[in-house]
Amino acid sequence: EWGAAMPVAGRDELSSLANTLNYLSEQLARQEQLRKHLMQDIAHELRTPLATLRAHLQAFYDGLWEPNRERLQSCLEEIERFEALVAAVETLYEADTMSEVPSRSGAQTDLRQAAQSVVQLFEPRCAAAGLNLAFVAEDTPVWVQMEAKHVAQVLWNLLDNAVKYTPRGGSISVSVGHRNGRPFLAVKDTGIGIPESELENIFERFYRVDKSRDRKTGGSGLGLAIVKRLVDSSHGVIQVESQVGVGSNFTIHWPAPFSSASSDPRGSAVE
Ligand code: ADP
After folding, report:
1. Most buried residue among 4, 102, 109, 138 by CB atoms closer than 10 A?
2. What is the distance in A from the centroid of ligand 1 to the CA of 160?
3. pTM of the entire structure?
4. Nearest atom (ligand 1) to Cα of 162
5. Given this model, what pLDDT does residue 266 score?
């Protein structure tokens, strides 16, 4: 219980203090509620792979099943699911704590270089999935105030989705550059798309558009929540345009660098 709100009357300093306290206690209550939901969601998500593993092992133990290759393979897949979830929860936690410390002096990263290495990582996977992968970038560095590993994580999650939700024969493109002086990163696919009514929900934790379909693709429902957190904490904005059966386009914009005259803000100390 967070207790009753302090009564507020008059326009003196005390009442404005009371307002602030009331606001803070509402915020705290909201945070507490979110944390509770998150814990429940995590517990629920971890239980599913554990239950499958337990059922398999029990059947082997009772002699009901021979542990053949195929069944052992299923066990390994459930363990991988479990590991992926734990890793995603860790990243989410890291992104959460980061956004509590707003920083203007974070690391500078060349979006172009960071994106190129992630795109390279995806080349074999796209080739295997019969997808065409293109990388389009300006030919000078595109600086953003974000750690390279976070840029990589954001692009990795977006590309992972693009690959998962684009059928064979489709294309994916990653573009990097400036629009109106603001650095941007975009990932576009010709995949299954997202219904308009779902667009506002996809950045929520554990949200999946189609539970049965996404269970097959092995998603955790945390990928976009992590993207959103990391983008928020670097003062960026993420937008998505999508049409069912046509494809999706995720675009992130960051604020313009302090000095737009210089292509390398590190050289033009305007802090
Ligand atoms: P998941 O791990 O399930 O992919 P995400 O948080 O990354 O979770 O994405 C949330 C949901 O948004 C996905 O389950 C999927 O339904 C939808 N989605 C995300 N990216 C795409 C995309 N490029 N094309 C179609 N649907 C997508």
Report:
1. 109
2. 9
3. 0.73
4. 23
5. 47
